[in-house]
Automatic annotation (TrEMBL):
It comes from Xiashengella succiniciproducens. It comes from the Bacteria. GO terms for molecular function: 1,4-dihydroxy-2-naphthoyl-CoA synthase activity. The record marks 82, 243 as: Important for catalysis. Pfam families: ECH_1. HAMAP family: MenB (MF_01934). Pathway: Quinol/quinone metabolism; menaquinone biosynthesis; Quinol/quinone metabolism; 1,4-dihydroxy-2-naphthoate biosynthesis; 1,4-dihydroxy-2-naphthoate from chorismate: step 6/7. This is 1,4-dihydroxy-2-naphthoyl-CoA synthase. CDD domains: crotonase-like. Belongs to the enoyl-CoA hydratase/isomerase family. MenB subfamily. One of its GO terms (cellular component) is cytosol.
Length: 270
């Protein structure tokens, strides 16, 4: 595929192709573990995807054929979090989770190898997961002194159920792509050499669908788990749609024309 580079970064690749954006964690020497700078770059790329009207779907993946992401970079883990180049401890990957979740466009994890620890959480947070046959899934926090009690556990439990989610976290075992598919953790498993083809095929199908309908479905499904924040985001999109209606325009027009609004003209649907 002739991916076009959107912006150069040190830790990620950010490319696009016909309405599809691809964000690739590019630290293969550490199995695509992320450090604070990696996460900041991903946040910026996702923000660009949000603003860009020509992008309808985002793929998140890892460089190479060994790992999607092996979680937080243990080389920079210190007291209080993962230490950035200024010496500040951070856990900014949680901000990335929020970005992926509230992006009003589908995000597909294209899992090409190990998805472990915080790398596993990244695919859990994505809307869909397509994995290669060599992919391996699992949490590692309780083995290495960490945990993710946010989307990494609650949303995981929505995918696989409470018992299985507790097993995944308590035992820190690794699961094959087939096992992950059987437990509802991934949408499809394909041979590694077909992974990008399959993912692009899914993206192209999504791009044929109504972007507003997809946006509302993502918001509504998130809202069930996200409490007030989820309702706020769903309501924000309801407001967006209301602004597109004549009824909302009438209020604004009447204000500017210094007259009473005529809302009686609008139907009161059953
Ligand atoms: C991924 C796994 C199971 C692969 O094992 P294996 O045996 O196939 O490869 P190896 O030799 O362990 O790893 C290859 C290279 O990648 C580095 C390794 O150190 C090794 O480097 P060299 O020795 O060749 O120089 N590497 C792999 N993962 C790394 C990491 N996370 N940080 C830095 N370097 C890493 C195996 O590598 C593994 O178990 N990795 C560690 C997984 C892990 O514990 N991740 C952190 C969990 S906590 C977390 O991510 C987190 C959280 O819980 C909450 C919030 C935010 C983050």
């Amino acid at each position: 595929y002739n991916w076009i580079t959107e912006k150069e970064y040190s830790d990620i690749k950010f490319e696009s192709l016909d309405g599809i954006a691809k964000i690739t964690i590019n630290r293969p020497k550490v199995y695509n573990a992320f450090r604070p700078e990696t996460v900041l770059e991903m946040i910026e790329a996702f923000d660009i995807c949000r603003e860009r009207q020509d992008i309808g779907v985002v793929i998140l993946t890892g460089e190479g054929d060994k790992a999607f992401c092996s979680g937080g970079d243990q080389n920079v883990k210190g007291h209080g979090g993962y230490i950035d180049e200024q010496g500040v401890p951070r856990l900014n990957v949680l901000d990335l989770h929020k970005r992926i979740r509230s992006l009003p466009k589908p995000v597909i994890a294209m899992v090409n190898g190990y998805a472990i620890g915080g790398g596993h959480v990244l695919h859990v947070v994505c809307d869909l997961t397509i994995a290669s046959e060599n992919a391996i899934f699992g949490q590692a926090g309780p083995k290495v002194g960490s945990f993710d009690g946010g989307f990494g556990s609650s949303y995981l439990a929505r995918h696989v159920g409470q018992k299985k989610a507790r097993e995944i976290w308590f035992l820190c075992r690794q699961y094959s792509a087939k096992e992950a598919e059987d437990m509802g953790l991934v949408n499809k498993v394909v041979p590694l050499d077909k992974l990008e083809d399959e993912t692009i095929d899914w993206c192209r199908t999504i791009l044929k669908r109504s972007p507003m309908a997809i946006r509302m479905i993502k918001r509504a499904m998130n809202a069930e788990l996200d409490g007030q924040t989820g309702i706020m985001e769903l309501a924000g999109d309801a407001t967006l749609m209301f602004y597109l209606m004549e009824e909302a325009q009438e209020g604004r027009k009447a204000f500017l024309e210094k007259r009473d609004p005529d809302f009686k003209q609008f139907p009161k649907f059953p």
